[in-house]
Structures are given as C-alpha cells and as structure tokens.
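Friendly challenge for the regulars: who can give me the structure tokens for this chain first? No prize, just bragging rights.
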Amino acid sequence: MGDGEPRGRLKRRAAQLKSQTYALYLAYRHPGVPWYAKLFAACVVAYALSPIDLIPDFIPVLGYVDDLVIIPLGIALALKMIPADVMEECRAEAETSMGRGVPGAKVAAAVVVGIWLLLLALVVFLIVRAL
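First reply, four minutes later:
Bragging rights claimed.
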C-alpha cells in the first residue's frame, strides 16, 4: 500500500463533494424541487461555501469534523429530499460545468462572506444598542 493511495482517495472524495455541492446548488434552482428541499439544499451549499465553520479548523481533530461529517451528512439528507430524476439532471449538468470550472464560484463565495459580515454587523449593532 503506497503513500499515494490514501491521498488519491481523499482527492477523489473531495472532488466528489465539490461536484455534489454544485449539483445541489443547481437543484436548488430547479423548479421540480419542493420548497423545503430547496431551503435545506441552500443551507448546505451556503455552509459548504462559507469560510466560517461551526468548529474552527485550527482546533485539532475536531476542526475537520464539519468537513468530514457535517457537509457530507447535509448533502446526503438533501439528496433524499430531491426527486431522483431532477438530481440526475443536475448531476449531469454539474459534471459538464465542472469540466469547464465552476461558474460563479467566486461570486457565490463573496455572497456568503457578505452575508456573514452583515450578520456580524447586525449582532454588533444590537449589542451596542443594548448598552
């Protein structure tokens, strides 16, 4: 068993998660997806793209729990809520798009960061107002 094998599996798994996340984003925008599945998929995609984690990555071992458990679990739950035919269509579109690079990935990340900053500003405003 060579050193490259586990690393290769991890890289493939990371690429798979990236593709699934993008497919969920596409499913979120699909008209054939129920509203509750859209809401959940949007939350999973936003969390996956967010630079802020529930457990910061600098905490040994626990810091990667969200990357290794929470995001895949969220994706799995979202996939159960989305009709299979819609998800297959979105996966195919994601595969095609991923070959060309994810369109708007930087814009989506900027939007998520902007939302976090707005929430932080709101919290600071409420704290200052309460004092």
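The first helix runs from residue 4 to 29. Residues 9 and 24 are 22 Å apart (CA to CA). Your move, everyone else.
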